[in-house]
Amino acid sequence: MKNKNVRGILALIIVTALSFGVIAGSRALAKEQGTDQSQGQAQVTEELDVSGAENIQSAAKTQEGYLVTVKEAGYGGDIVMEVSFGEDKATVTGVQVTEQSETEGVGSRITEEEFLSQFAGAKAPVYLPGMTLETEGEAEPAQEEDLELQDGTYEAKAEAPDNNGYTDQVTITVADGKITEAVWESVDGDGNKKSEQSENGQYVMTEDGPTWAEQSQALGKALVENQSLGFLTMDNQGKTDAVSGVSISVGGFADLAQKCIDQAAGVKTEEKVPQEGTQVDGISGATISSTAAVNGINAAYEFLQTID
After folding, report:
1. pTM given for the model
2. 8 A C-beta contact, residue 25 and residue 31
3. Which residues is 46 bridged to in the sheet?
4. What backbone torsions phi and psi does residue 255 show, to the nearest 5 degrees?
5. Scanning 31, 64, 100, 179, which has the fewest C-beta atoms within 10 Å of its C-beta?
6. Which pLDDT score, from 0 to 100, does residue 240 have?
7. Numbered ranges of CATH 3.90.1010.20 in the chain
8. Both ends of the chain: CA-CA distance in Å?
9. Checking phi first, is residue 169 left (phi over 0); if not, alpha (psi -120 to 50) or beta?
């Protein structure tokens, strides 16, 4: 009986010691994590008025600078980020993605440290390779109805693939000064055309709706009928209700078609990279998501420039 009591006491001592070890380890981990969080989100000293500021959800003055919560439309939905800046309102000290619904393993990689860490210490505005800003003082572009189109075939191609690995390209044909044909195609890295894949069942968007090929053809016909892109209104997701049966995002088509029209009209678009700012790297195959993240950071920066 005595031996049983001794064993019971020893077991209680061992369990108690292990419990203290677990508690001590948990406290150390919590302390370490708390340090990391405090570095990323300094104490707020003053809430800032964001009424009327587009896409800015909240902003505050902190002990170390500023913290801005911004929302930007991504590929799969809204992307919400917390962007912290130094006292100069221009140096990014940290970026955290708090909400996103981008494609898993592709656009969702904007949440990864490899992507976000490059912004720490960067001077805003930030920009991706090939991203341009409008030239200050540039004359107002001519209205599309005033443009005289030269006969010929014109093509424009996206600079990089989209989140699914397809690269958009648009070709328009002009005869007798009128657009007679407009073709929107999207090609993957192996040269497969999305139009053909959608027709043979390899690229399926919905079971009962128009195929991608049918929708792209409808857009092309609408451009020929209207002779300009003035009809093509879009929401912040690049969707339109201007063409019956079209449910896909049409931003890529609109951008490239406009470039083709500009070529046909002899309009030269002057491009430049920001004179001040920092170039960053996007995520391969996630152009829309990467651009949304960059635009969000720049929106936060631009908001801070309005603060006294």
Report:
1. 0.53
2. no
3. 61
4. -65, -45
5. 31
6. 87
7. 144-265
8. 80
9. beta
* CATH code for residues 144-265: 3.90.1010.20
DSSP 166: -
Q: Distance (Å, rounded) from C-alpha 182 to C-alpha 166?
A: 19
User: Which tokens hold the place of 12?
Assistant: 């209680």
The string of DSSP letters for 82-144 reads EEEE-TTSSBEEEEEEEE--PPTTTGGGGGSHHHHGGGTTPBSSEE-TT---PPTTPPPPPPG
> Could you tell me how far CA 33 lies from the centroid of its own chain?
29
Per-residue pLDDT of the chain (308 residues; tens, 9 = 90+): 545 555 555 555 554 555 555 444 544 443 443 334 333 457 999 999 999 898 999 999 999 999 999 999 988 899 999 999 999 999 999 999 999 999 898 899 999 999 999 999 999 999 887 665 444 444 444 455 567 999 999 999 988 887 678 899 999 999 999 999 999 999 999 999 999 999 998 888 877 789 999 999 999 999 999 999 999 988 766 788 899 989 888 888 998 999 999 999 998 755 555 557 888 888 877 878 998 999 999 999 999 999 98
Helix (H) or strand (E) holding 24: helix 2-40
Q: How crowded is residue 131: how many other Cβ atoms within 10 Å of its Cβ?
A: 21
Going by C-beta distance under 8 Å and a sequence separation of 6 or more, which residues neighbour residue 222?
Answer: 231, 232, 242, 243
Residue 100 corresponds to which amino acid?
Q
Between CA 259 and CA 252 the distance in angstroms is 11
Identify the residue whose tokens are 């990864």.
112
The pLDDT assigned to 238 comes to 74
Q: Which residue has the tokens 């053809």?
A: 217
> Can you state the percent helix, strand and coil of the chain, rounding each to 5?
35, 20, 45
Q: Is 21 helix (H, G, I), strand (E, B) or coil?
A: helix
